Amino acid sequence: MKKLIYCICMGLAILGILGGCSVTDMKKGEQTALDYTVVPQEDLPEEILNLVEEKKENDFQMTYQDENYLYLIRGYGMQEQGGYSVQVEELSMGDTAITLKTNLLGPSKEDKQSQEPSYPYIVLKIEYRDMPVQFQ
């Protein structure tokens, strides 16, 4: 009898703990397209250049904030040759998060590309918003 009561109490405790947990859908609700600027390398703040240099060997995604702007940075790590570019597929804002979806585009077959490794990345500048960013 004591084992039965103990099992019931443990089961209720576990249900209570699990009931307090929830999963937040970061992309629920309407999505609104955001205006952005692709920032050329020569216009990047030095802090961003240093961060990119530090992380460029591997796939990375990060944000950087200054007084008025939020920078969304997406890099695809080392590629064996040049000619790669990053395409913005979507930048939008929902009720709970900003979503950035990008694609890595390979070099075209017609163009003769450098055989040196390259480190494709993109930096987008948007008006500052106090929201999490979801990279896809």
Quick structural gist:
This protein is of the alpha+beta class and 136 residues long. It is built from two helices and eight strands, in the order αββαββββββ.
Describe the structure in your own words.
Residues 21-27 have low confidence and may be disordered. The strands form two sheets. Strands 1-5-6-8 form a four-stranded mixed β-sheet, with no helix packed on it. It has a four-stranded antiparallel β-sheet with strand order 2-7-4-3, with helices on one face. The protein is built from two helices and eight strands. It has one domain (29-135). The longest helix is centred in the N-terminal third of the chain and has 19 residues, at 2-20. The chain has 136 residues and is of the alpha+beta class.
For the structure shown, list the relevant keywords.
single chain; 136 residues; alpha+beta; 4-stranded mixed beta sheet; 8 strands; 21% helix; 34% strand
Topology summary:
Blueprint: H1 2-20, E1 32-33, E2 37-38, H2 46-55, E3 59-65, E4 69-76, E5 85-93, E6 98-105, E7 121-127, E8 133-135
Parallel strand pairs: 6-8
Antiparallel strand pairs: 1-5, 2-7, 3-4, 4-7, 5-6
Radius of gyration: 22 Å
Estimate the global geometry from the Cα principal axes: globular
Termini separation:
53 Å
* Residue share in β-strands: 25-35%
Task: Give the rounded overall mean pLDDT.
Answer: 85
Number of helices: 2
Helix share bin: 10-25%
Structural class: alpha+beta
N-to-C series of helices and strands: HEEHEEEEEE
Cross-sheet strand order for the largest sheet: 1-5-6-8
Q: How many domain units? A: 1
List unreliable stretches of 5+ residues.
21-27
Number of strands: 8
Major β-sheet profile: 4 strands, mixed
